[in-house]
Structure formats: C-alpha cells, structure tokens
Amino acid sequence: MSCEEAAAQQQPEQAEEKTDDPPIEEPLSELAKGGEISPAEEPAEAVVANPEKAPVASEEDVFTYRALVLTGYGGYEKVKLQMKKGKPSIKSGEVLVRVKACGLNFAELLGRQGLYELLPSPPVTLGMECSGVIEALGEDVTSRKVGDRVLVLSRHGLWQEVVAVPASQTFIMPESMSFEEAAALPINYLTAYMMLFEMANVRAGQSILIHMAAGGVGIAATQLCQTLEGVTVFGTASASKHETISQGGVTHPVDYRTRDYAEEIRKISPKGLDVVLDPLGGSDTHKAFSLLKPMGTLIVFGAANCVTGQKKNLLAMAKTWYNQFTINTLRLMHANKAVCGFHLGYLGDDELIFKTMNTLLELYIQGKIKPRIDSTYHFEQVGDAMRRMHERNNIGKVILLPEPKAEKEVENSEEKAKSSPEQGEMDDKKEEEVKKEESSQEGVKSEEN
Ligand SMILES: NC(=O)c1ccc[n+]([C@@H]2O[C@H](COP(=O)([O-])OP(=O)(O)OC[C@H]3O[C@@H](n4cnc5c(N)ncnc54)[C@H](OP(=O)(O)O)[C@@H]3O)[C@@H](O)[C@H]2O)c1
C-alpha cells in the first residue's frame, strides 16, 4: 500500500455511524473493571405487563456477543468493545465459529488511522485472522463438522466472540497447534511465503534483507528462509531484539535506529544482496534498490514509515510520499534488477491462498515453522495491544483473546495504572519525542539522497 493511495482513501476523522445494526456500546474503561456488559436497551421491568401475551424471545434473539469495533479514525480509543445482539446468521456454505484467539496486524494500526483502503469506513468490526471451534454448519457444508478446530482468514470482522464465515475461508488446525499459534499464522506466513517463494524465488545460498525482522512477518520470513540451505539473512530491528532474532535464524542483525543499516550491510556484503523485502517505503526503498546486486529482486509490501505513533502523522506521510521510489523501465533494464509489489489483500487468488496455507500447515507439522507469540491481551485491552506494536516493543505476534479478563487480573492492572503516571499524558509525550526523532532522522535521510 502506498501512502499516496492511503491518503487519497482517507475518511473524515469522525465517520458517521451506520444505523442499520445498532450495537450496545460500553466504554472500555467500564468493561476493564470486569463488570458484565448489559445487553439490554429496554429496562427489564418494561417487558412483562401481561406475561401470557408477552412474546417469547428466541435463543437467537437474546444471544449477545462481544466485538471490537472501529468507531472512527484516530487513536486507541477509537476501537471500542461493544456488545452485539442476535446470533450471526449462517448462510449456505458458511460455518459459525466460536473465536478463541485473534491476530493483530500492522494493517489494523493503519486502519485505525484511516490509512488502510481495504477496510470499510467505520463503524466496522476489525480483525483479519482468528482461530476457534466450529459451532454450527450452514446448508451444503460437508467439508467441516461441528467441533472442528479451525483458523480463519477474512478482510475484516473477525475480532468478535462468534463469527459466521464461508467454510472455504477456514482451515483445519493441526492437532499440536495452539489457538494462539493458529491466530498468528495466516497473514504473516502467507505474506512471507508468497514473497519469498512465489515472487522472489529465493534459493539456497542467497542473501536477503528482512526489515522489521522481529515483527510478525519478519519472524515468519526468517523461519521460511531456514527451510533452504545457507541463506544469509540480514535483519533490521531495535538492538534489544537482536539476541532473539539471531537465535531465530537472522545471520546479521542490524540496528537501524542508531546506524545507517545500508552502510553496515555493504561492509559485510560489498557485492550486494539477492533479495530485499521492503515494508517501510519512502527513502528506505531507495536504499533497498541500491543494496541489490545485479539480478536481485526488491519487493515492496508496506509503508510503515507513514506511521510514527498512535495518531496519524501528516508530516511523516508527506515525507514518505516525497521520498517515494520511482524508476523508469530503461534504468531498470540497465540495472539488471527486478522491482515487485506484493499485497495479500489485493491478491484475489483463492486457489493460491488455499494451496499456500496447506503448505504452511504441513511445514508447521514438520516442525519447520512455528509462530512466535509475543504477548496476549484480552479484548478489553486492545489499546494496550496496539500500543505494544506502535511503541515497537513486540518480538513476534500480538494476540487478542475474546475471553473476558478475569477479575483478579483487572484488579492487578488497575493497581499498576494507579502507581504509574497518567497513560494518556505519557502517550502524548512519547509521540512528541518520536516526531522530533523522525524529523532529525529524515534530515539525515534527505542529506543522504
Ligand atoms: N502487503 C501485504 O500483504 C502485507 C501483509 C502483512 C504485513 N504487511 C506489512 O508488513 C509490515 C510488518 O507487519 P506486521 O504485521 O508483521 O507488524 P510487526 O512487524 O509486528 O510490526 C511491529 C514492529 O515493526 C517495527 N517497526 C518498524 N517501523 C515501525 C513503525 N513505523 N511503527 C511501529 N513499528 C515499526 C518495530 O520493531 P523494531 O523496532 O525492532 O523494528 C515493531 O516492533 C508492515 O509494514 C505491514 O504493513 C504487508
């Protein structure tokens, strides 16, 4: 996704709420206290004046479930835990899944800021991957049965306790796989696998640069490189994560925050690299292209440089766009290099996705890949989960659990909150610092270009 496209698709900060399916919304702070969410919009006493004539509500009607809904564009508070009414109806070919764990992706951070064009405008339930157990089958579903443990892929809408999805978007989990691992696998590993093996055609003995190497896609790509002999992996990550990513297979961890990573890589590999995966955009794409050796392949698959914190940063977006890499075909021919783009959301090839998912599940069974879970958060802690990624603290996948947080945990986190300064103030201060750091770093980058 380019910043240009993202900016063009932006919606107003406060999108109007759709009115067709009004949810019952509770502020996160209330839910975090562990109290039950009341699903009732009408007071209970108003219902039964004449009990004999009172309509008997079906189980489907009184059914309620929790969902994480993006209510507008902006900071963490825009994702709200809401109680929805009525069981999701299952159409022919669909299954009803009781969700056990959900994956958080960088795309949801972009989506919250209005920068992910594939996400419908708010209010919309977030969530592109989850795992769970099949509870009911729609007509014509023969490939699945009630009780199957499945992982699920969708464009959005999976961050809720129960979901109705086409059976074709579910995959049977291997027996040894946990729900957390299953929720961590689809997007990161599909993306990494397709870039490495469908597009770049990475082979034994080659060299590759993986940015965000300690993140979800980064760890997946590193593990998949280990399925080949002698691939040299350069991985950029914050210094505190280097030990972990080295153990995971990164040959040369590079601290991009305090050094010029391109210079560091050239010192080790003066002839350049075979493949660079670029999820950053802007001036980093220039560096990526210059790091390639002849016959090398650059794959652009993100624009993380547009994001500097929880709130949208127009300056960072403008800088990323201004530094966007462009090349004409003649120069490309003279350089003997390939430049590709990859976006899973736009792929639209169900057969390829199905085939690749099955390959990945087989690799998991063989013990060749294993999602690394960084942390798990309950739905009511979604802001903390997002903060963990924004503040670059995760090593591996951040997981969300629909199950409500136990009261004891709630008490502990309230105690913690009391003994630390106001989180909002801290966030704002941190964002200021990040913006200052970004400006000085961009200054260095412009001088380099
Ligand atoms: N095109 C596609 O189909 C596709 C699919 C999935 C993901 N992606 C892209 O792949 C990238 C990684 O996604 P992911 O879901 O696996 O996330 P992730 O890598 O887990 O993201 C968080 C980590 O990235 C690093 N990072 C670098 N720049 C950052 C920034 N501006 N803000 C926050 N963290 C930053 C941080 O680690 P360090 O500090 O250690 O660097 C952070 O801990 C994203 O750009 C995403 O958009 C694209």
UniProtKB/TrEMBL annotation:
Question: Per the database record, which ranges form the Enoyl reductase (ER) domain?
Answer: 74-400
Q: Give yes or no: UniProt keyword Protein biosynthesis.
A: no
Protein's UniProt name: Enoyl reductase (ER) domain-containing protein
Swiss-Prot/TrEMBL keywords: Oxidoreductase
Domain of life where this protein originates: Eukaryota
Q: What is the lineage of its organism?
A: Eukaryota, Metazoa, Chordata, Craniata, Vertebrata
Which InterPro entries does this one have? Answer: ADH-like_N (IPR013154), ER (IPR020843), GroES-like_sf (IPR011032), NAD(P)-bd_dom_sf (IPR036291), SV-ATPase_mito-regulator (IPR052100)
Bias type Basic and acidic residues, positions: 404-419, 426-449
Q: List, as start-end ranges, the regions of compositional bias called Low complexity.
A: 1-13
Renumbered residue ranges of the record's region Disordered: 1-53, 401-449
- GO CC annotations, alphabetized: mitochondrial outer membrane
Q: Its GO biological process terms?
A: negative regulation of mitochondrial fusion
Q: Which gene encodes it?
A: VAT1
Q: Which SUPFAM superfamilies match?
A: GroES-like (SSF50129), NAD(P)-binding Rossmann-fold domains (SSF51735)
Q: Name one GO molecular function term.
A: oxidoreductase activity
* SMART domains listed in its UniProt record: PKS_ER
**Pfam families for the chain:** ADH_N (PF08240), ADH_zinc_N_2 (PF13602)
